Amino acid sequence: MRPLDADIQYARALVVDPSPGSRATLVAMLRDGGVGRVEQCAHVADARRVLASRHFHIVLCEHEFPGEPMTGQDLIDELRLSHSLSLSTVVIMISGEAAYSRVADAAEAALDAYLIKPHTEDALRQRLADARARKRQLKPILDKVEQRDYESAAELCRSVFEVRGPQWIHAARIGAELYLNLGQAHAAIEMLEAVLATRALPWARMGIARSQYRSGSLASARRTLESLLADQPGYVDAYDVMGRVLLDQGDSEAALSALERACALTPGNVARLQKFGVLSFYCGDPARAAQALQRATEIGLSSRTYDLQGLVLLAALQFDRRDARQLALTRTTMARVAREAPGSARLQRFVDVVDTLHLLATRAAPEAILRVRAMFGALHDPQFDFEAACNLVMLLSRLERTEVHLEDLPYHIERLALRFSVSKTANELLVQAAGDVGAIVGVLRQCHARIGAMAEAALSHTISGRPAQAITDLLAGAEQTLNGKLIELAGHTLARHQAAITDAQALHDRIDALKKRYLSYGTQIPLTRPGERV
Are strands 90-95 and 12-16 parallel, antiparallel or unpaired? Predict the structure, then answer.
């Protein structure tokens, strides 16, 4: 036995490899290196369950799993996304030379290393020793992240970065991610540009693009991503962000193409399949939407990265093609999952939508109408978000197509649209959810124009030297519509002109009350899973 380091006997390792011979060899190498406990899995699904429930210090994972829908890279991506894999875990991907570029991307995502087969025991020992040394040097930072003390972790990263201490590039990468999530994109860009000045690392360019996107510089983010993808056409994470940038620029077809490319590179990635399926649905491509959402459901329903919003849209597609059998199965699945989380208002909304689709499919129109009217009652609830609005519009459009007409439908669509038309992109998604139902589409577009007119009128008051009047008008509109754009604009106007406003504190209190109840809801585009980074 040749121990890798002084603490290796306390380490727990997992070997994930479909080949019994390869697993045995890797297990023997780890034990010879002094690893205290070594476990093994032959299948991705087994590894997913084990890694989601237990902590490992070392994970050795094969890239290719013949006959399985997911690769090792898909597994690691999923575990990172669901926060099931600690940053302190050393992850080494192993693959044949043919998959080198994909494995290199996976290694970047995991921050650790990869091995190309055939490899020697010394090569594995060196990768493990280097990675474990790096984790020890970054331990104060990683501990703060594990404790969810993100501000302190970011400051520790900055201190290492500023003095260019050991592992400063890795500290800069973690720090940039933390600053992005803390809403400090400029601090992230500062770190990533310093890394780029040293080496043109793809992940640093990727981080800059994400920082530019977060700070609202869509054109700059797009240029950075185009340059990165020209040099690294297999860098799959870049297609994810490019899709979001293009969508926010209003180019939904190009966004769809970017996400389709990401799915082609990682066909077993549940989160990407869902993103592509959701966007295909809203772009009016039911065939591609159904294919992607069905595959995501088949391979990922038990995954923590699977979002049940995909099951809602799948139910709508099954309703459209009159597949009563599959719709009934989807309804049963949704009800079963919801029972496992009885306190989730979001899942209950999903159940209500799928149940209503099933009622319409079985010609139980009166019961369906009762369900829909109950949903109308929640339109001004703080927890009723943009996702729920899109689902309701989708449901109402199918109600209209089945010739079940509600006389007060325009009134309720107006209430919904005035609240959730916070941007051109948001309004277009609502329009796409409505499909070809002109009675709904017309109201949605009119309401977006009304919100725009309110904002323009307020701007004219500000330009004319009447900021207090602008804020008062914006607040009146915001309190009536609960529109997040009007709430934010009132807040920005007050922050800029509060020195000239006598009742600034009273206005601030009104704005703050609206923000606390409504601003965190209703502004998210349903393309990412809740909590997922962009």
Answer: unpaired
